[in-house]
Design a protein that fits this description.
Strand content: under 5%
Distance between the termini: 38 Å
Number of helices: 9
Largest sheet: none
Helix content: over 70%
Mean pLDDT: 82
Number of domains: 1
Shape: globular
Length: about 200
């Protein structure tokens, strides 16, 4: 049970920084309301579930990516984070424009979460860093904890954004996108420095 609680705690800490998925969920909630935001949150949890299971399977089978493939993937992911972050920081309405065209939030957020370049790598890195990484049962329990955190956090975030609705002005949404974009670009720069150095 302690491993599940550890997963919940670490999961919540890892979900707090505003990344592209969370920023998009906030804007969906503010613009489209509670129901689309909750559907989007369900899509995020589904995507996290797929990634968590895949990461546990990869670590358990010992078939983690070869070092060269993993480092190349990390470099590409860092470059994408820098590019996406810069786009959000410099053109913060990019997310706003696409939200109006979103018709199936659950599927859209599932794909966005599942296909985010660094997501699987982040899961593998987080699980591999645990002192019980060689114990499949403990890894699975920890992953359950992280998924519980995702299940708690994302609907709460979507619901709060929907409740704020019109209180989150266009200017506030733009600022949120700019701050999130700058943060994302900085994470990308940090990853790039780590991979090169």
């Amino acid at each position: 049970m302690n491993v599940v609680l550890l997963g919940i705690g670490i999961g919540l800490l890892s979900l707090l920084p505003p990344g592209p998925v969370n920023l998009t969920l906030v804007q969906v909630g503010a613009r489209m309301g509670r129901r689309p935001a909750l559907r989007g949150a369900a899509g995020i949890v589904g995507g996290d579930s797929v990634l968590g299971i895949a990461a546990v399977a990869l670590l358990t089978l010992g078939t983690a990516l070869p070092a060269r493939v993993f480092s190349t993937t990390q470099l590409v992911a860092a470059a994408l984070l820098i590019a996406l972050g810069a786009l959000l920081a410099l053109r913060p309405t990019a997310i706003s424009d696409s939200i109006g065209r979103m018709h199936r939030p659950a599927r859209t957020f599932f794909l966005l979460t599942s296909l985010t370049p660094t997501a699987l790598g982040s899961w593998i890195a987080m699980l591999a860093a645990m002192p019980f990484a060689a114990d499949t049962t403990q890894l699975a329990l920890f992953t359950v904890g992280v998924l519980v955190a995702s299940t708690l956090w994302h609907p709460t975030l979507g619901f709060a954004a929907a409740a704020m609705g019109s209180k989150l002005t266009e200017r506030g949404q733009i600022r949120l996108s700019q701050v999130g974009g700058a943060g994302m670009a900085l994470v990308g720069v940090g990853l790039l420095i780590q991979q090169i150095g």
